[in-house]
From TrEMBL:
Modified sites of kind 4-aspartylphosphate: 54
Domain spans labelled HTH luxR-type: 149-214
Name of the protein described by the UniProt record: LuxR family two component transcriptional regulator
Coiled-coil blocks: none
Record carries keyword Phosphoprotein: yes
Alphabetized UniProt keyword annotations: DNA-binding, Phosphoprotein, Transcription, Transcription regulation
SMART domains: HTH_LUXR, REC
GO MF annotation list: DNA binding
Pfam family for this entry, one: GerE
Domain Response regulatory stretches: 3-121
Length: 221
């Protein structure tokens, strides 16, 4: 059973998601929030598997709420899936930096939303490579967004650099294993070690790191 908190300032949007999830086997809605502060409070109270988070809300917005959730060691098991109206959106970029496990457009097909929730609940990053490249290409080279991660990247081995580049390309552990001719367990271990070394919470943060450190560039194939 995947437990979900819905955070959106529009009651109609929350109601629509609730109806969708409550009619689908395997999901349970354990709370609704109209702003980020309420979303954080519900996350602390219920410890859901996922918070579906609108990024633009009054008061505490979705970015700050995401930071508060991902920065709380007691909420390490709570994933955040960001919802947005625009796929190239600086709010989404900042949410990924803050630790969101992925993002979806609000007009996503219901079947895709359910799939996304299952993917994020399983610990995978929900980042379509083409959309991610477009999103990061839009913001990574702006002076105010440049962040040097050279020190963090220097801590990883050459093999781990290869793995990180493949994670940034949207490959799963199984696909990375096939590409590098290693076992899936070994690929998973590499990814876990990279996360520990660079201080990333999940694969989505690894993708942002790979681009911002210039290990991968937005226009790379």
């Amino acid at each position: 059973m995947i437990s979900v908190v819905l955070a959106d300032d529009q009651a109609l949007v929350r109601a629509g998601f609730r109806v969708l999830l409550e009619t689908e086997e395997g999901f349970r809605v354990c709370g609704e929030a109209a702003d980020g502060a309420e979303a954080v409070a519900l996350a602390r109270r219920h410890r859901p598997d996922i918070v579906v988070m609108d990024v633009r809300m009054p008061g505490t917005d979705g970015i700050e709420a995401t930071r508060m959730i991902t920065g709380d060691p007691e909420l390490s098991g709570v994933k955040v899936l960001v919802l947005t109206t625009f796929d190239v959106d600086e709010y989404v970029y900042e949410a990924l930096r803050a630790g969101a496990g992925g993002f979806l457009l609000k007009d996503t097909d219901p079947v895709e939303l359910l799939r996304a929730l299952r993917v994020v609940a399983a610990g995978e990053a929900l980042l379509a490579p083409t959309v991610t490249r477009r999103l990061i290409a839009e913001f990574v080279d702006r002076p105010e967004n440049r962040r040097v991660h050279a020190g963090a990247v220097r801590e990883i081995t050459e093999r781990e650099r290869e793995v990180l580049a493949l994670v940034a390309g949207g490959l799963s552990n199984e696909e990375i294993a096939g590409q590098l001719v290693i076992s899936t367990a070994t690929a998973r271990t590499h990814v876990s070690r990279i996360m520990t070394k660079v201080g990333a919470r999940d694969r989505a943060q690894l993708v942002v790191l790979a681009y911002e450190s210039r290990l991968v560039r937005p226009r790379d194939p």
